[in-house]
Amino acid sequence: MSALQCKPSQLLQLAKATIIQPMLPHFHKGQAGRILIIGGSEDYTGAPFFLGHALMQMGCDLTHVVCDAVAGSTLKTYSPDLMIHPYLVSSASERVKGFKGVPKTDSEADLVVFLDDSPSDVKAFIDSHVTLRINSVVSRSINVTVVGPGLGRDPLVLYTAQKTLALILLSGNPVIIDADGLYLVSLKPSILTDALNSEQSNSQVVLTPNIMEFQRLCKAVNVSVDLEKLSSKDPEARDTYTTELATLASNRLHNVSLLVKGYHDIVVNGKTSMVLDHSKSVIPSLRRCGGQGDTLTGILATAMAWAANYQKGRLWDIYEHSHVVEGLIGRKKLTKDEGIILSCYLATLILRKSSSQAYAEKKRSMLASDVGKFIGSSYEDLVGE
Ligand SMILES: NC(=O)C1=CN([C@@H]2O[C@H](COP(=O)(O)OP(=O)(O)OC[C@H]3O[C@@H](n4cnc5c(N)ncnc54)[C@H](OP(=O)(O)O)[C@@H]3O)[C@@H](O)[C@H]2O)[C@@H](O)CC1
Ligand SMILES: Nc1ncnc2c1ncn2[C@@H]1O[C@H](COP(=O)(O)OP(=O)(O)OP(=O)(O)O)[C@@H](O)[C@H]1O
Known about the structure:
Bound molecules: ligand NPW, adenosine-5'-triphosphate
CATH superfamily: Ribokinase
Distance between the termini: 29 Å
CATH architecture: 3-Layer(aba) Sandwich
Binding site for (6S)-NADPHX: 150, 210-216, 294
Oligomer: single chain
Binding site for ATP: 261-265, 284-293
Number of domains: 1
Mean pLDDT: 94
Family: Belongs to the NnrD/CARKD family.
CATH topology: UDP-N-acetylmuramoyl-L-alanine:D-glutamate ligase
GO molecular function: ATP binding; ATP-dependent NAD(P)H-hydrate dehydratase activity
Main location: cytoplasm
């Protein structure tokens, strides 16, 4: 039996007995998560903050943020808990003044040409002044990387993100691609397909599109979308259709996992899928303020760091509750794919519960920063200490 066949109430029990990492006295700093965020630009400093704050509230030990040079000081003032590396250089920087061949318009076709075939002086600059510095952070035993929130769409920044993403994908470490990272993948899906093995399920790569990003992604991989069906008022019909599209898109991207956000979030990887409907256990928040997706991604990143530690099986006795696991799925250990699906389940549940608690207190004035403050109490209500 698969974890996917468990009832919702059993999924939380399964997560507690498997991927949820205990806090043990012998642990050292970094073992509960060393997460890297690549995002944050002149226009968007909130997104990497909400994300970083959320993953720290979940219990991640160390959070690195690689952001645009101009966003660094602002981000540092938000929180001393985040380690900020302001290494990204955009085409607005004085440092690249006079470089030729960087697109000056918003044309996506020009941007794709630039990403495919960047002029050599730009490449040399990025390689020697930017990528090298980013690689020094990537090599610090990072266990999950998130690419995209608040990254923006500047050509030089996207080019740098493309190079870094390729390197991380080759390492096989878990990656979440969100927001402008999804824009990059939609412009150039080969970033994923060139780096991933078509034979395997690539659950370690999770894309977290909102409904607009999902449509863009489907178009990029030639999955045609019937907008009427995608926005159907009947939740069941809409979930079925979204799952169908997401499965096709996942297959065309070498079976990466997709967590499609919406009224119900839906997770798909290659062959398997699950509709994450928490409405029976959580009173829904009615606020749709920006930053809730970033908060979800932060919670998910920490859960994925634990799931990766669970798969390695070296940090704690992962078989301590194997009788529970065996009772639920007939096996003692989860597969990697099940670990990722369970991480998505847990993250969406905690996000919805945090939004619900924040909404109960703040109503119309609820903000993403309020949601972040309720992650700890929601976690405790759902999971315990
Ligand atoms: N405080 C901060 O720093 C924050 C920064 N952020 C950062 O902003 C950057 C751009 O991200 P983005 O999501 O605004 O861009 P994009 O995908 O172009 O969407 C644009 C248009 O699509 C629509 N639309 C969007 N969602 C929809 C939905 N669920 N359902 C239906 N329609 C939807 C809507 O257009 P409408 O149809 O309403 O006119 C919207 O205007 C990115 O870096 C991100 O990380 C955010 O994280 C928030 C907090
Ligand atoms: N109609 C809805 N009802 C309940 N929850 C929703 C609804 N739409 C989205 N959500 C939840 O809100 C969170 C953010 O989703 P959203 O679609 O706003 O993502 P996003 O656009 O990426 O967010 P961000 O503003 O951080 O970029 C997700 O956890 C999602 O499940």
